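Chapter summary example.
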Amino acid sequence: MRRVALITTSAFFIVAVSLFIGPRIINPFAMGATGSRIIMSIRLPRLIIAMLMGSALGASGAVLQGILRNPLADPYVLGISTGAALVASFGLLLGSSVFGYFTIPVLAFIGAVVAGILVGAIGYKRGGLWPERLLLAGVGLGFLFYALLMLILSISTNEGIRRALLWIFGDLSMSDWVLIPYGFVFISAGFVLALWRAKGLNALMLGDEIAHSLGFSPNKERTLLFLSVSLMTASSVSLGGVVGFIGLVIPHIIRFLVGADSRILIPMSAIAGGTLLCVADTIGRTVAAPMELPSGIITAIIGAPYFLYLLRKKGILGEQ
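The structure predicted for these 320 residues follows.
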């Protein structure tokens, strides 16, 4: 519990500090009218959305690695994010505004939901979702969606290409207060569902036979947990685009610190994931100001070397 408290306290401090760091450093004790407007209208909604997205990705990664029993699983391995990116980018290139400000988030959510349904349908066999089929279906559909996305971008000549590319790599520059309630509702629903079935997830990680002997139905647990991942991933991508590595790296770090009990792993992965994305977003809008770097690029630069370090430390890529 001491490590849980330390992670939570550190996350709160880092997030609070990131609120005042950017192209313009703001003194929290002497903000003035301009500083207050920057905080309230730009940085605070952006920070909240980064926390929501990162939390969803961190928790989703922890759940997926459990239900698939694969340490390399993350929210994007199922193709849900690529499906969202495909539909959203199509809307960006067409300049669609059917739903006004919510057009791109709605299109992304629709794409993610359709992708999730397709993956679930292909991964369904004999009354339940099979981990191997689910994983292979996600990888296969992910490649298909990505190929279609690249095809659309390669034949398009309008000005929406740059906006689409930024969104694909995780762009939080369009963060706004109006998106927060929508994102909070869907991400919270998925998160609560995952926590509710945390004991079942613990049982699934021991194997289907042991889970069944402990009184859990593997098919039911896997279906409910897949639904929770789909909700969180779809909502995250619709808020700010595709951000990689959080769902892959964060659960490994948290599992090393607090253990594999999903009742603790899921909420701690959510906190750490949200914190990492806040840090990545702060770096992205600061280091090359006034130009912004997509958050997905920053998380990959931070996450990839550290993940390789973890693999080597555990002896997977070579001797220590």
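To summarize the output: The chain has one domain: 2-310.
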